[in-house]
Amino acid sequence: MSTIQDKVVIITGASSGIGEATAKDLTSKGAKLVLAARREDRLKALHEEILKSGGQAIYKVTDVTSHEQMEELAEYALKEYGKIDVLVNNAGVMPQAFLFNKKVDEWDKMIDVNIKGVLYAIAAVLPSMRERKSGHIINLSSVAGHNVYPGGTVYCGTKHAVRAISEGLRQEEAMSGTNIRVTNVSPGAVSSELLTTTTDPEMKAGLDEFYKTAIDAESIARTIAFAIEQPSDVAINEMIIRPTVQMG
Ligand SMILES: NC(=O)c1ccc[n+]([C@@H]2O[C@H](COP(=O)([O-])OP(=O)(O)OC[C@H]3O[C@@H](n4cnc5c(N)ncnc54)[C@H](OP(=O)(O)O)[C@@H]3O)[C@@H](O)[C@H]2O)c1
């Protein structure tokens, strides 16, 4: 039996891409899923598919930029399933453009979703995990959390922040002996809906070209499952997963 069996896993951004692929992979391994995103129709369809295949899941429409909604999501998970074993902190946006284009609204959005959203989710699950002295927080950073490139400045800044938050959280929990594992996942180009969040035509053209060799979202889902299914005294702290042909 997989060690994922009966683990309660919250997935933010479960309505598409990596989040959706992770939900499908983890339900096949017996996890109890708590699906969150803003698009209810997509969550509902995924929820129905999981139940039809004999899996267990609940869903809640949640905007990760709302601290209150994130707290309500964790409360819902605890009420329905009694515990939270894993958070897949995955929701993210990538509206890329050169700084001189002054897309300040998009900067705000990236900071709100990619940084504050990640922090709010950690805040929502940490108390109950600490109380149980057990838990696993998996944050989606990116190779953009390791590199910086023109046009990706703000996005890279948010993904560097996610990596710093992962490492800080890891050290704090290790120091406190809470048995909470932290995994930072840094994908390269992955086929998903992420590119649709870039509106700048020049950036979009370059990204469309770059993403021609993108790997599928299931590749990342498999690595997330690998991190979860390690014995509880083993923490996979950092994973970079690129298409084999990706340079940077
Ligand atoms: N695809 C790649 O090449 C790649 C590479 C490196 C890292 N990543 C990271 O992987 C993560 C998942 O991205 P993806 O590629 O799977 O893209 P995606 O298909 O666009 O999925 C993004 C998810 O985030 C959710 N989301 C966005 N804003 C939200 C908000 N305010 N509140 C709640 N949910 C929100 C979306 O759901 P709703 O719109 O329904 O809310 C969607 O489910 C992101 O953090 C991304 O930065 C992706």
From TrEMBL:
PROSITE patterns: ADH_SHORT. The keyword Transcription regulation does not apply. It holds the Pfam family adh_short. Keywords: Oxidoreductase. The keyword Cell inner membrane does not apply. GO terms for molecular function: oxidoreductase activity, acting on the CH-OH group of donors, NAD or NADP as acceptor. Residues 7-188 form the Ketoreductase domain. Belongs to the short-chain dehydrogenases/reductases (SDR) family. PANTHER family: DEHYDROGENASE/REDUCTASE SDR FAMILY MEMBER 11, DEHYDROGENASE_REDUCTASE SDR FAMILY MEMBER 11. This is Oxidoreductase. It comes from Peribacillus simplex. The lineage of its organism: Bacteria, Bacillati, Bacillota, Bacilli, Bacillales.
